[in-house]
Amino acid sequence: MKCAIYSRTSTDRQTITNQLNVLREIAERKGYEIVDEFADEGISGAKGRNERKGFDNLITGAVKKDFDLILVWSVDRLGRSLQDLVSFLNEIKSVNCNLYIHQSGLDTSTPTGSAMFAMIGIFAELERSIIKNRVIAGQQRAKLEGKHIGRPSKSVDKVVVEKVLKMRSQGIGIRKIATENSLGVNTIYSLLKKSA
After folding, report:
1. Residues 2, 33: contact at Cβ < 8 Å?
2. pLDDT per residue over 142-164, tens digit each?
3. For the chain, how are helix, strand and coil distributed in percent, rounded to 5?
4. N vs C: which end of the chain shows fewer Cβ within 10 Å?
5. Rounded distance, CA 42 to CA 52, Å?
6. Are the C-beta atoms of residues 67 and 95 closer than 8 Å to each other?
7. Are 104 and 134 in contact (CB under 8 A)?
8. Cα three-residue angle 45-47-53, rounded to 5 degrees
């Protein structure tokens, strides 16, 4: 059986090496021929197909029937959204390409494996929502404690403020003022608001 391997990491600090080593070993043990390997390094699973070149090429290869099976480390390597995962599975299933997910031991060539894949997608989406809610709760708690959330404010001296005000009075655009003074657009708006 011809297979392809897909691996992904969310940050540049992570490596796909461990995923590849295990998946290559599985392919060898099961007698699969690896015809291609696709990877997206430092790209979130929440990104769509158009922002993940390796994932896009994987689907294109499946549709062209370059391989019969895709090996992947875990379901979250494929994506975080249930809708995207189900769409991916439907697309590869429509061309009789199956999926093996190592961490779950799932093989979509079986009816049970296909149903379990959909359920894992639901839990992956739930986990992402829980993490997001924890982050928001942490930010709210930090605000209540008087801590600053976000980038630190840049201190702007009086000379720069005067320059900004003069440039704006001359009709120069906000973005140009920001660029020429090495400030953010929001900082320029804030300075203008304070001086009004």
Report:
1. yes
2. 888 888 777 666 678 888 889 99
3. 55, 15, 30
4. C
5. 10
6. no
7. no
8. 95
- Residue linked to tokens 């439907």: 90
Express each pLDDT in 128-144 by its tens digit. Answer: 788 888 888 988 888 88
**Residue 144: CB partners within 8 Å, gap ≥ 6?**
none
Q: What is the DSSP string of 57-106?
A: HHHHHHHTTS-SEEEES-HHHH-S-HHHHHHHHHHHHTTT-EEEETTTTE
Tell how far CA 164 is from the center of its chain: 38
Give me the torsion for CA of 49, 2, 7, 105, rounded to 10°: 110
Q: Rounding to the nearest 10 degrees, give the CA dihedral for residues 88, 94, 97, 99.
A: 40
Q: Which of 5-19, 22-36, 41-55, 83-97 has the highest mean pLDDT?
A: 22-36
User: What is residue 49's DSSP assignment?
Assistant: G
E strands, 118-175, where?
A: none
| Per-residue pLDDT tens over the stretch 31-60 | 999 999 999 988 887 777 778 899 999 999
Strands 98-101 and 2-8, bridge-based pairing: unpaired
CA distance 85 to 17: 24
Place of tokens 């922002």: 51
> Inter-axis angle of helices 82-93 and 53-63, to 10 degrees?
30
